[in-house]
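[audit] Reproducing an earlier prediction to check determinism. Same input, same settings, fresh worker. If the tokens differ from the archived copy the diff job will pick it up downstream; this log only records the rerun itself.
[audit] input (259 residues):
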Amino acid sequence: MKQSENQNLELTRIEGRNPVAEALAAGRSINRVFVMENARGDLAHLAARCRRQGAVVGHVSRSVLDRMALTRAHQGIIAEVAPYAYADLGGILRTCKEKDHSPFLLLLDHIQDANNLGAILRIADGAGIDAVVIPQRRSVPLNAAVAKASAGAVEHVPLCRVNNLSQTILMLKEAGFWIYGTAAQAATCYRKVDYAGSIAVVVGSEGQGMSQSLAGHCDFLLSIPLHGRINSLNAAVACGIIVFEAASQRDKKGLCPDP
């Protein structure tokens, strides 16, 4: 499949009970649902909710669902949905300004693993991140595996896709943002900085970390002190540690949005 075709197929199918339920809660248009035959209890109730929303519901065998599934954890239900609508970063920043709210953004530099991206979206939802920004190219497609790993958070966290992260960072700096990058060898501990004001945290890819060009645009490069024999954390874990430290500081200063 060509890259352009793959992009067009992004997140047109979701798998599992939580992703389908959260898609319903978010008002996502569900076109067709495949549910395991003889469904009972919560699964039958979820299928009925999809039908009431207008979806065509078909009952199929577990083996059919197994062949259809990307995640191997379909939990008895797979749904075909409308394509994901990416958020507009400029619009989000204007809304924050109108609300007199200092934005907190998360920028992801070529995250390639679907589970990591899904987990990061779940973290972003829990921490009250205003938007997650990803590059248009060289990033994992937003697919059913990402939606499943996010436990439905993909339906609630604004996700923006930009052509060039470097240009986006420069635009944010001109708008008054402080940029914090993550780097394993950085001298500054993530707990030793002030996360007040308009900020963006840049998280690098799983294998290569943050690119040198992006690191050069950061105001601060942050590391997480490690005391064991394994000297690295995966992208989602590192992201969670730093993001929740920032959120905690901002909460104490009254900078976090109300839940």
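[audit] rerun output stored. Observation attached for the diff report: The mean pLDDT is 87.
[audit] end
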